[in-house]
Structure formats: structure tokens, C-alpha cells
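Can anyone check this?
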Amino acid sequence: MNFVFSLKRQILRTLHRIDVSKKAPGFFYNLAKRLTEQINPSEYNIDAYLLPFCNQEQIQNLLSQWSIERFEQLNPTSAFYSKLLAYQSSIAIQLMQADLNKIKTNYSKFVTYFLNKQSVLKSLVKKQPKQLVRLFTEYMKQLEKQNQYIPYVIEENRTYLFEKVPNEMIELFLNVASNQAGSIKFEHYSFPSRYHHFKFSFPHTFTIENHVRVFMGLYDTCKWSTNSLSNILDCTLIEKNEDTSLSSLKKERQWFYDTVVCQRIGKDIFIKKLLEQGDNSTLKRLNGYTDLTTPLAAHLLTIAERKGIVTVKDRLSYLQYQTMTNELFDQFLSLFKQVSSDVNQRADNYPILFECALRTNEENVQKALQWIEKRFTNEQYMVLERFISTLESSSTKFNLKILPKNLDSIKNIFNLTLNHLQRTTSTTNNIANYAILLLKRSEYHLNKNEKNLIQQFAVELLTQYE
């Protein structure tokens, strides 16, 4: 008897290897239908071995014949369960929807339906991303507002999902974000918790139009503009660092500044919102958009002055986000003189001047570097080393576009640092690391002339100070 049972299972298990589907498209369906008229579908694993090779309509007919209407009717330890998830995942999602339809009148069950299904959801997210996100969207719409959240499986795979199903993901996130301005509720493993600071981490393929849809959705539809403009900026703008590519910066300026600020909202209206809601963290987030940070920095400085005495250090922290002009440049120099005896403050001042010029334009960068170069002739080593660190961590824009036009000043600054009497062995290592960084960044630079200048400079650094 055991032999016969084993033989029947072996025959069923190997049937799919026989190329019968083209000659008889209904072969697996008809066989499963006939066998299960008198035999339980799980007998000999008939359901597991035959159903995955039927089409969706045939599967629905068989499930109806077997009186399986909902996902919770399936035995999670059965072979059929795992085969269904592996080969017919869309059917599994349909059965989940049937579960939800049945229990939606029982709110306590409805709200906790997905809590113990993380492993199942993980197996479905890349097989049926669109269907799964739509399932969650409709599910969240039926929950009370305070219970709506972004499921853990969506959060864990959000970059992938924003690439594959951007429209569905935007709808889901905006639906949840509309419940409380400034925050989005997420599920952490198996329980919901609220996070106020969140970044979308969009893929590189995310279009300008979709960036605009997300920002304007949060701004208008979700009403975050009322008192949460800083949170919108935190969510949507990229983290700018030394590795941020020129193409990413250009793309962000296109969708954020050119389209959202200037066209959709209006620059004057947006600045008014900034003045009402912005703070020091907003200045940092808008780094590089001097048309926006200049009025905000001046406004925040005025508020600080009204509250009491503003130190030179505090004043410089606001001035650095303003557009560099001749007047502002002179103001920097005047403030620098007031703290010239403090070596630590001097070490901070040079990078502040350089960064302000870098945010403005190339002409001001050249002017600032030439002034810094002259001042470094008799400067202490720690000040020079701090500035070298600033260059190393500077944006890709500086290292690829501006550096080639200021090589003489930069070379002199490096020479002054390396020939300084207080120089340590770590200096050579830091400069070598910077040279390697330049070689890596310039490798795919499109401007061949700039690329050659950068690479020649990097090689000089490596060979001269090895």
C-alpha cells in the first residue's frame, strides 16, 4: 500500500516535466478536476503538483470545486500552500482580499489581519508588487485614520517598489500621510509606531514628474504646508554630501526649485512659508539654494538679534547661507578680524567663507580661495589641516567643475600644508586619500579637458608626497 501511495505521488510530481501543455492546454486542469471529484485535493499532494500549472481561471474553478474561498483556509504547512505562493502568487493575494472582505465587519480582526503574515508578504512583494501595494492601499482606506500605517514589508522594500510601481506607492504613502500633517506612521516588524523624520529614498529612475507629485501631494493634498514645510523638505530632498552626483543635483534643482518652487507654488509664496516656519535645520536642508536661504538666514539673524546679543560665531552661522556679494565678503573679513586671536575660530572661519562662496558662484570661489591662499602663508598648521579636510569633503560640483579652474590656488594651499613645520605623518595620508578620491570621481566625468586636469593633479599629489 505504501509503495502504491509513493508511486502515485511520484507520478504526479513528475508530470509537469512532460511537455503536454502545448498539445493539451487543459491537461493539468482536467486531471486535477477528475482526480479530486472523489479524492481529497491534498491526497497524494494533487493540489500542489497540478494546480500551479493551471491558468488563473482554471485555478479559480478548482478552488471553487474544493470550497476554498479564502487564504486562511489554506494549511500553511502544506506543500500546496508553498507552491501557490511560489507559482501563483496573484491567486494568494486574491484569497487575502477575500479574507478581508469576510472579516471587515469585525474591526478587531480586520485591523490585525497582517500582523502574523510577514513571511508571506515578504515572499509576495517582488512577485506581485503592484497587486500587493494596491491591496494595502485599499486595506488602509478602510481602517480608522489613527490606525493607518505603512506596512513593514513596504518600508523594507520601498526603494525597489518606488522603482517598479511608483504610481501605486505614491497613492499609498499620500493616503497615510494625509492623516496627520508632518508625520507618517510605519509598522516596525509587527507593531505600528510613528516616525516624524522620514526620507523616501527614491530610486534614480524616479521621474521629475513623480518627484513633483509627491512634494505637491504632501504640500497641498496632505496639508503639510500649514505647519510642516520643514518635514516635507526632510522627506523629499536628497542628503547632499561629497558623494552626491552632479546629475542628482541637477535633477533635484529641476523638479524642486524650477518646477515646484517657481512654477507650481510661486517663489514669493514659498519664501513667505519659509520665513513663517523655517529654522536653522531648514537652512542646512536647503543648502545650495541661495535664493531661498538668503532671505531665511537674514530673517533668522534678525530674530536672534531681537532676543539679545549675537556672537560673531552665531552671526557667521547665518551669513554663510546668504548669497556672496562684495558687501558680504567685506562683512566676513570684518568679523574675522574680531576673532583673529582665537585659533579655533580661525579654523572654522576659512571653511565658512569657502562654503558661502561655493553656494554662490565660481567667481566668488576663486576670490575666496585666493584670499585664503594669502592668509595661509603665516597660519598655524591645525587651521590649514582643517581646511584641507573641508576640501576633501566638498561636493562633487567643486571637485569636478570648479577645482580645474582654481588649481594654482589649491596647489599652493596643499604645498603650504605639506611644508609646514608642524606637519604630521597623517597629513600625507589624508592628501593621498583625497587624490584617490579625485581619481574615482573623475573617472566618469564627461568633460574630457576637466577630467584630464583633475587626474593630472591627483597623480601629482600621489607621486610628489608619497
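Reply from J.R.: I decoded it. Residues 246-265 form the longest helix (20 residues).
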